[in-house]
Design a protein that fits this description.
Radius of gyration: 20 Å
Structural class: alpha+beta
Strand content: 15-25%
Strand order of the largest sheet: 1-7-8-4-3-5
Number of strands: 8
Number of domains: 1
Order of helices and strands: EEHEEHHEEHEEHH
Distance between the termini: 59 Å
Largest sheet: 6 strands, antiparallel
CATH superfamily: Transcriptional regulator MraZ domain
Helix content: 25-40%
CATH architecture: 3-Layer(aba) Sandwich
CATH class: Alpha Beta
Number of helices: 6
């Protein structure tokens, strides 16, 4: 499922329930989905990622297809232990709310004020303060990686072409 772009600041009630914004709530209802899988996306330094069950299973299968259970430090095993081990199934109640379990609330430092936004095929939920602190760092990291990346759809420069463009001394 692809979510329409949305960005919302929400309030979580004292029981840990949060109302999904209308756009994803309606999209999930139209798909016949009343459950989401939540995982802590950066351990205890990030937020939560929410997936519909089908998409979560597909991503997990692709990510762990070549896993070696006897290599405890492989990237796939580290991913399973640090991210997938935090997964919880959240049920969307009749009022369009999800209850975030205490363990996930603690990992993501979720309190009364939350930031929720779409990321294409999933939703992210962050503590507002943590998001406001992390977002500039993420933007800088993204800019650093894109400054050093070749432009989209460009062919790598040929070493021969580069030599021929160098002026003779």
């Amino acid at each position: 499922m692809q979510y329409e772009p949305f960005h919302a600041e929400l309030t979580m009630d004292p029981k840990g329930r949060v109302m999904l914004p209308a756009q994803p709530r309606m999209a999930l209802r139209m798909e016949g989905t009343n459950q989401l899988i939540a995982v802590a996306n950066e351990g205890n330094e990030g937020g939560l990622s929410l997936f519909d069950q089908r998409h979560y299973r597909e991503l997990l299968a692709a990510r762990t297809a070549q896993i070696d259970p006897f290599d405890p430090y492989s990237p796939q095993m580290l991913f399973l232990r640090s991210v997938v081990s935090t997964n919880h199934t959240l049920t969307i109640d009749g009022n369009g709310r999800v209850l975030i379990p205490p363990r996930l609330r603690a990992l993501a430092a979720l309190d009364g004020r939350l930031m929720m936004f779409s990321m294409g095929t999933w939703i992210e939920v962050w503590n507002v303060s943590r998001w406001n602190e992390r977002h500039p760092q993420l933007v800088r990291r993204w800019l650093d990686t894109t400054r050093h990346a070749p432009p989209p759809n460009s062919a790598p420069a040929s070493p021969v072409a580069a030599e021929s463009e160098t002026p003779a001394r």
